[in-house]
Design brief:
It catalyses: Preferential cleavage: Arg-|-Xaa, Lys-|-Xaa. The protein contains one helix and 13 strands; from the N terminus they run βββββββββββββα.
């Protein structure tokens, strides 16, 4: 997760892809001096033995278009490598030539748990969502080749927390978090219409489009 230094508050999610690198959404950007990264977190209200806290040494943003959320991805270099264990391990990057077009995926985060709420979940939660093809049917003209959609097909089980259907605009806690499909890190929580809107799927940055960019920076940055 990402925290603001001065408030100590969680504001976005992220995904470890290498011992010293985390991927998040570009709209979660803050100056590196104002960010901390916490790995191994589960309950934000308790000090847990697996937590690892890091300063940020470098941030890379990929030509982000803030008006359209296109290229909503950033790569964060931690101040030191993480200690990898059963609770902290890198996600598997996807095949750069393929993106899921159907099936069930899992999205997780500490975001708001009710429509119109400003209160984040104190514990990490996850929910299964369906890949939604032909997403332009919901967002005519706004979905680029760098985006994919997932959610519930025109219905929502209201006693299930949906972390995939996020608020358009400022981070709501789930932004920047991972969409995991068949064990691969396929998406980054990016944007949507309203909060937990059952009639509009969540929109995710399509990670497969950026595998070369991610690996090039990791392999060529001291």
């Amino acid at each position: 997760m990402l925290k603001e230094i001065f408030t100590g508050q969680h504001y976005c999610g992220g995904t470890l892809v290498h011992a010293q690198w985390v991927v998040s959404a570009a709209h979660c950007w803050r100056p590196s001096s104002k960010m901390k990264v916490v790995l191994g977190e589960h309950n934000m209200n308790e000090v847990e033995e697996y937590e690892q806290i890091f300063n940020v040494s470098k941030i890379y943003v990929h030509n982000y278009k803030y008006r359209t959320y296109d290229n909503d991805i950033m790569l964060i270099k931690l101040s030191r490598p993480a200690e990898l264990n059963a609770k902290v391990e890198p996600a598997q990057l996807p095949d750069q030539n393929n993106s899921p077009t159907s099936g069930t995926c899992t999205v997780s985060g500490w975001g708001v748990t009710q429509v119109y709420s400003y209160y984040l979940s104190p514990v990490l939660r996850a929910v299964d969502v369906q890949i939604i093809p032909r997403c332009n049917w919901y967002y005519w003209g706004r979905i680029t080749n760098n985006m994919l959609c997932a959610g519930f097909r025109l219905k929502m089980i209201y006693n299930t927390r949906s972390t995939s259907l996020i608020c358009l605009g400022d981070p709501q806690g789930d932004s920047g978090g991972p969409l995991i499909c068949n064990g691969y890190f396929e998406g980054i929580v990016s944007w949507g219409i309203s909060c937990a809107n059952p009639y509009f799927p969540g929109v995710y940055t399509k990670v497969c489009k950026y595998v070369d960019w991610i690996t090039d920076i990791i392999n060529n940055t001291a």
